[in-house]
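Internal ticket #5521
Category: modeling
Description: The requester needs a full-assembly model to guide mutagenesis choices. All entity lines are attached below as received. Residue total reported by intake: 285.
Assigned to: D.W.
Attached entities:
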Amino acid sequence: MSHRAALGTLAIGGNPLVSRRVLSSVGEWGGARVGARGAGLSTSMASAEELRLVARIATGDEAALRQLYARYGSLVYSIAVRVTGDRCAAEDVAQQVFIRVWERPAGFDPERGSLRTWLATLAHSRAVDHVRREQACHRREQRQLPGAPSDVEEVATSSAVAERVGRAVDALPDDQRVAVLLAYYDARTYREVAAELDIPEGTAKSRLRLGLRRIARCLEQEGLGAWT
Amino acid sequence: MTHEEAAGLLGAWALDACEDAEAASVERHLASCADCRVEAASLTRAAAGLGELAAGA
């Protein structure tokens, strides 16, 4: 389904005409990637500004939605494409994320993290939903086993944040790293992680928790707690 | 879901790696447990950091 078709089915509440026009006007999702790249750290501490942006979106301000897209479109699309492995699906996911923000801006809770974290979280959960739906429809061929860790090591880290996260991931014990990356990038449930790694489910759960905790600690130590 | 069960699932929950019903149980627990909310927020930030890695590719 193209992203325009997706809009037709998804933009049913709120202000569909506006959201369709605004989101279509940015054209290909991939096109926003370059422009949005620079936004990374510069928006890190902007929680008051983020609140204003979300408040403007809540009033139906199209310019605010465009601004949100220009800033975070790249991040959202990148996560979606990495998890779904499919550019078309990623466009749909990205559309869903921004439509969701447009229609339900009150879903943003600044107590729980930055706007950037919220959008990344929405992108991931929508992308995971897509993968699981697809798996449920047609049992696809077994996807590749943990190539993920080496993929990640080869990532050309262009932003400071990604670089620090990359270091945190590299520093994880192997068993935690493999489990975390399988869950995040390959949309595996912890049960699937357990089956795939041939470990008890309880062990999978604790590896995911401990691994994420370590990453969180690294980010906090590097002073990125405020950023996220 | 007990506190221990929910806390044990927080990592999987932050990674969207729970079954839907489990995720819903975790979220019900979060509504009433401040300690778990703090950890959940921290783990969610870490998971979002993994998203930055995807964007940096």
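Resolution: model delivered.
Comment from assignee: Chain A touches chain B through 62 residues (CB under 8 Å).
Ticket closed.
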